[in-house]
Amino acid sequence: MIWVTPFDEIILYEAVFQLLFSRYIQPFLMVQKLVPL
Predict the structure, then answer these.
(1) Is position 4 within any domain?
(2) pLDDT tens digits, the chain, 37 residues: what are they?
(3) What's this model's pTM, rounded to 2 decimal places?
(4) Any domain includes 37
(5) Helix or strand or coil: residue 7?
(6) Rounded distance between C-alpha atoms, residue 24 and residue 16, angstroms
(7) Which domain range does residue 14 map to?
(8) What's the rounded Cα separation, in Å, for the pair 18 and 12?
(9) Residue 34: inside a domain, yes or no?
(10) φ, ψ at 15 (rounded to 5°)
(11) Is residue 36 domain-resident?
(12) Degrees to nearest 5, angle at CA 19 with 24 and 23
């Protein structure tokens, strides 16, 4: 059994957020800059 401290959870959520951000949000923002709506 692996015990997860709140601090570890924060790191985990931050890693997931960074992954999602770099994968989806950044390209979306770049496309928005290239193609003004």
Answers:
(1) yes
(2) 677 688 888 899 999 999 998 898 888 888 888 776 5
(3) 0.49
(4) no
(5) helix
(6) 12
(7) 1-28
(8) 10
(9) no
(10) -65, -45
(11) no
(12) 25
Total structural domains within the chain: 1
The phi and psi torsions of 36 (rounded to 5 degrees) equal -65, 135
Go through 17-34 and write b for each residue having 16 or more CB atoms within 10 A of its CB, e for each that does not. Answer: eeeeeeeeeeeeeeeeee
**CB-based contacts of 35: which residues, under 8 Å, 6+ apart?**
none
Q: Which amino acid is at 14?
A: E
Sequence-separated (6 or more) residues with CB below 8 Å from residue 4: 12
Alpha helices for the chain (secondary structure H): 6-20, 26-34
Tokens of 35: 């193609």
